[in-house]
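Hi, here's the filled form for the chain we discussed.

Project: internal
Contact: R.S.
Residues: 79
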Amino acid sequence: MERFVLPIIEMVDGDRDGLVRGERLYPSSLIFKVESDDAFGREVFERVFQGRRVIEGDFEGVKQRILELLSRHFGSKGR
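And the returned structure, exactly as it came back:
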């Protein structure tokens, strides 16, 4: 979020647990629209974060790992 000078990566599916309306994002933040943000979020938590709330690494590295997972996820569904 821009006011915290913190880039974010968010997965949304259009239900009510998404971003707060009008919130401005810090540059380099990404928002992905996926079929099920809750399910994909759990997958990111397990595979990228390895079940931990905090991991070592830079934002760009974590972003790349999530992009790769997203690519494999949609690739396996023929999209």
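Let me know if anything looks off before we file it.
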